[in-house]
Design the sequence.
C-alpha cells in the first residue's frame, strides 16, 4: 500500500522535472547545438562573402579548408602565440596565487586585512578587459606615456622606449595584464579550497611538529588536487580563447607576435573577404586542441587511488 | 628559542605585508592614473604623464569626448539593455532548471546533470560562426535580442544554483505546499525562489558583469554604429578620431569602467563570497 502510494507520487511529479528543464534544453538546441553543427558543416563548404548565406558542400575535396588552415603559417603562429601567452601568464599567476594562499591560510602568521586584500586583488578581474587593454596601451604610450615617464624620471632609461613596436615587450605586456587580472581570482578559489579541508588534519600535523613548509607541500597541496585541476582546465580554455586583451592592446601586432587563435578565426570569418568556411574549419581545429589538452590535464591530475 | 622564533615570524610577516601592499598598489595604480588624467589637459599629460594631483580640465575633456561622431550614451544604453535582459533570463531559467534537478525525481535526471557538466566545458568560440549565420538568417543581427535570448542557456549558472539548492532548499517545504494545494509552478515562483534570493543575487552580479564586459560575440553580431555596446566603443577611443586627445581618451575609459567600480565596491562582499564558492565546486 505504502509502496504503491510512493510510486504513484513519483510518477505524477516526474513530468515537472522534464517540463521545468525544457526551456534550458530548447535554448541549448537552438543557441548551442544548432550553431555548433552549423559551424562543423560550414567547415566543409565554400561559404564566404559578407552577408552571403548560400554555400556549396565541397563534395570533391571535403577536407580542403581544414588542410589549407593547417598549412597556413599564420594559423600555426597564432596557436604558438596563444600557448606562449598563456604559459607566460599562467605560471607566474598560479605561483603567486599559491604563495598568497599559503600566507593567508597559515595558522602561525595570522595575516590581517585579508578581506581588503582579496577585494583589491580581485578587482581588475571584473573591469572590462577591452577598457583595461586600451588603458595599458595608453600607459605604455610612446613617446609620452606614464610608464615611459616613470622610467626616464627614475633614470632607468635615458629616453622613451617604443614598447608596442617590439614583439617581446608587447607579449610581456599582454601576459602581465592577464596575470594581473586573474591571480586574485585564482587565489580566492585556492584559499576557499584550503578552508574546505578538514581542520583536524592540520591540527594533527601541528601536534606532530610539522613545519609550515611541510604542511603546505604534504597536506595542503595534495588536498587541493581537484581544485587545481579545475583551475588549470578553466584557465586553459579561457587562455586558448584569449581575444580581448591582445586585440585591443595592439591588434595582434607587431608582426602578428600577439595574434591569438581566436583573433585568427575572427580575421578569417569576420574581416577581409569573410571566409566563413575557413574560419569554421579553424574553430573546429582549435576546439580539438582545447579538448585534447583538457583531456591530458584530467588524465594527469586524476585520483590515483 | 621562543624569542628567536617570534622574531622570525615578525620578519616573515613584515615581508608578507610589504608584498601584499605592493600588489594592492599595483591593482589600483593604473586606475588612479586613468582617473586623474581624465581631469588633466592633453598638454599637461604630454608634459608629465603621471601626476597624483587632479587638474581642472574634466569638462574640456568631456566636450572633446562627446563632440565626436559617435555617441557614448547610446553604447552605455545598449550595454545596459543587453546586460539586464541577459541577467534576468539567465537567473530565472537557470534557477528553474536547477529546481527541476533538485525537487523532482525523473528518469533522465542524472544523465541530464552529467550532460550539463559536459557542455559547461565547451568554449563559446567554437559556435560563433554558426551562431552568426543562424542569427543572420533569422534577421537578428544588429538586434540586441541576439545577445539576450541565448542567455536562457547558461549551464554554469544551473550548476551553481543546483549546489546552492541541495544545501538550502528543504524538500519538506515543497511537500507541505502541495498539501496546501499549491500548484507546482506556483510553488517554484512563490516558495522556492524567495529562498534562492542570495544565490540569485550572486549569480546575477556575475552574469551582469560578464555580459557587460563581453566583446567577442557583440563585435560579431552588432555591426551598426547605433547598436554597438560599450566594449566595442572602447576600440574607437584608440582609433584615429581621438588621436592625440589624451585627456579625452582617459576620460572615456574612466566612464566605461565607472559603473563597474560602483557595482564592485558596493557589492564586493557578495562578489568575493561568490568567487570563493567556485573553490567549493571541486
Sequence:
Amino acid at each position: 500500500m505504502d509502496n504503491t502510494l510512493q510510486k504513484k507520487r513519483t510518477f505524477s511529479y516526474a513530468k515537472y522535472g522534464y517540463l521545468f528543464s525544457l526551456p534550458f534544453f530548447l535554448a541549448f538546441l537552438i543557441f548551442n547545438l544548432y550553431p555548433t553543427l552549423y559551424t562543423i558543416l560550414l567547415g566543409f563548404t565554400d561559404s564566404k562573402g559578407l552577408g552571403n548565406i548560400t554555400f556549396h558542400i565541397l563534395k570533391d575535396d571535403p577536407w580542403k579548408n581544414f588542410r589549407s588552415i593547417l598549412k597556413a603559417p599564420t594559423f600555426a603562429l597564432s596557436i604558438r602565440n596563444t600557448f606562449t601567452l598563456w604559459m607566460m601568464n599562467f605560471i607566474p599567476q598560479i605561483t603567486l596565487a599559491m604563495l598568497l594562499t599559503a600566507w593567508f591560510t597559515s595558522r602561525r602568521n595570522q595575516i590581517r586585512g585579508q578581506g581588503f586584500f582579496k577585494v583589491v586583488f580581485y578587482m581588475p578581474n571584473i573591469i572590462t578587459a577591452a577598457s583595461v587593454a586600451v588603458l595599458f596601451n595608453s600607459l605604455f604610450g610612446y613617446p609620452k606615456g606614464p610608464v615611459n615617464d616613470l622610467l626616464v624620471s627614475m633614470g632607468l632609461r635615458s629616453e622613451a622606449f617604443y614598447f608596442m613596436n617590439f614583439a617581446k615587450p608587447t607579449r610581456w605586456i599582454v601576459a602581465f595584464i592577464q596575470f594581473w587580472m586573474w591571480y586574485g581570482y585564482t587565489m580566492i578559489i585556492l584559499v576557499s579550497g584550503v578552508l574546505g579541508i578538514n581542520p583536524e588534519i592540520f591540527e594533527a600535523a601541528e601536534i606532530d611538529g610539522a613545519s609550515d613548509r611541510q604542511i603546505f607541500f604534504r597536506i595542503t597541496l595534495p588536498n587541493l588536487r581537484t581544485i587545481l585541476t579545475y583551475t588549470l582546465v578553466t584557465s586553459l580554455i579561457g587562455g586558448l580563447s584569449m581575444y580581448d586583451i591582445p586585440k585591443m592592446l595592439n591588434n595582434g601586432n607587431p608582426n602578428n607576435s600577439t595574434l591569438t587563435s581566436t583573433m585568427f578565426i575572427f580575421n578569417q570569418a569576420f574581416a577581409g573577404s569573410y571566409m566563413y568556411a575557413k574560419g569554421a574549419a579553424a574553430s573546429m581545429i582549435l576546439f580539438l586542441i582545447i579538448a585534447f589538452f583538457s583531456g591530458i590535464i584530467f588524465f594527469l591530475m586524476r585520483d590515483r587511488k | 628559542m621562543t624569542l628567536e622564533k617570534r622574531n622570525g615570524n615578525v620578519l616573515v610577516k613584515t615581508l608578507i605585508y610589504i608584498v601584499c601592499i605592493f600588489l594592492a598598489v599595483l591593482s589600483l595604480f593604473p586606475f588612479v592614473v586613468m582617473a586623474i588624467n581624465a581631469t588633466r589637459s592633453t598638454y599637461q599629460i604630454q608634459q608629465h604623464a603621471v601626476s597624483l594631483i587632479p587638474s581642472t580640465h574634466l569638462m574640456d575633456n568631456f566636450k572633446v569626448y562627446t563632440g565626436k561622431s559617435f555617441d557614448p550614451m547610446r553604447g552605455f544604453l545598449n550595454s545596459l539593455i543587453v546586460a539586464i535582459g541577459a541577467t534576468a533570463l539567465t537567473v530565472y531559467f537557470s534557477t528553474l532548471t536547477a529546481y527541476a534537478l533538485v525537487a523532482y525525481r525523473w528518469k533522465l535526471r542524472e544523465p541530464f546533470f552529467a550532460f550539463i557538466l559536459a557542455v559547461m566545458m565547451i568554449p563559446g568560440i567554437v559556435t560563433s560562426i554558426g551562431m552568426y549565420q543562424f542569427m543572420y538568417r533569422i534577421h537578428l543581427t544588429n538586434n540586441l535580442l541576439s545577445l539576450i535570448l541565448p542567455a536562457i542557456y547558461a549551464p554554469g549558472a544551473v550548476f551553481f544554483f543546483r549546489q546552492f539548492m541541495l544545501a538550502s532548499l528543504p524538500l519538506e517545504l515543497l511537500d507541505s505546499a502541495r498539501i496546501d494545494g499549491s500548484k507546482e509552478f506556483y510553488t517554484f515562483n512563490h516558495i522556492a525562489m524567495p529562498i534562492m534570493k542570495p544565490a540569485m543575487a550572486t549569480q546575477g552580479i556575475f552574469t551582469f558583469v560578464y555580459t557587460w564586459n563581453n566583446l567577442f560575440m557583440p563585435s560579431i553580431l552588432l555591426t551598426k554604429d547605433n547598436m554597438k555596446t560599450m566594449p566595442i566603443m572602447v576600440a574607437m577611443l584608440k582609433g584615429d578620431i581621438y588621436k592625440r586627445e589624451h585627456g579625452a581618451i582617459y576620460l572615456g575609459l574612466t566612464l566605461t569602467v565607472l559603473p563597474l567600480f560602483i557595482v564592485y565596491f558596493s557589492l564586493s562582499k557578495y562578489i568575493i563570497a561568490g568567487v570563493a564558492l567556485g573553490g567549493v565546486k571541486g
About this structure: The mean pLDDT of chain B is 86. Residues 68-243 of chain B form a domain with the MetI-like fold fold (CATH 1.10.3720.10). Chain B has 14 helices and no strands.
